[in-house]
Amino acid sequence: MRLRRLIPLFAVPLLFSLAGAACGPRYVTGTQVEYSDEREAVAAVVERYRVALEQRDADTIRKLTSKSYYENGSTTDDPNDDYDAAGLEKVLGALKANVKTVRYAIEITAIEVVESLASVDYDYKAEFMYTVGEQDRWGTTNDKNRMTLRLEDGHWRISSGM
Asked: Which of 20, 60, 100, 134 could be 129's S-S partner, Cβ–Cβ 3.0 to 4.6 Å?
């Protein structure tokens, strides 16, 4: 009998706490970025890129790339390391030929969408096995980056920042 009297005492606060949790903010999957359909779609492209990079899947990376792709090599004052979508082919060729294994983690910290343009700020950590001559070596790097995307034919495509 005592247990039946106690159940309502616990049930009411529990229901209020569950209702309050349901009204909390929604986030883009795997991030602390406030949810919107557009942000979720952009984050999905970034994840597809991350997986394709780990799998060294050049075809998927090509499909995710904008026709207007342009990369400045992270140097704004030196155009010698800049490349466009055609130059990306050389990078993809080197990835396939010289890199044997890739582990690539991305933590998205911000997504901004304005009409048909989006920017994604993210932290990344990369580990990769590559061949120099006939010797395999491991390399690691981590940094912050910004990827930009453009809406083309109804699909988000990466226009810089790979």
From this structure: 100
* Residue 20 included in any domain: no
Q: What would the pLDDT profile of 36-63 be if each residue is shown by its tens digit? A: 999 999 999 999 999 999 999 999 999 9
Low-confidence ranges of the chain (pLDDT < 50): 3, 6, 9-12, 14-21
DSSP string computed for 1-58 = -HHHHHHHHHHHHHHHHHHHHHTSPPB-TTSSSBP-HHHHHHHHHHHHHHHHHHTT-H
Q: Helix, strand or coil for residue 160?
A: strand
**What total of structural domains would you count in the chain?**
1
Tokens 């247990």 belong to 3
Residue with tokens 């899947």: 57
Other CB atoms within 10 A of residue 46 CB: 24
Structural domain containing residue 112: 27-160
Q: Residue 38 maps to which CATH number?
A: 3.10.450.50
pTM: 0.78
- Looking at residue 120, its pLDDT comes to 98
- Looking only at the bridges linking them, the beta strands covering 83-84 and 70-71 are antiparallel
Q: Is residue 37 part of a domain?
A: yes
Residue 114 and residue 58: Cα distance in Å, rounded?
28
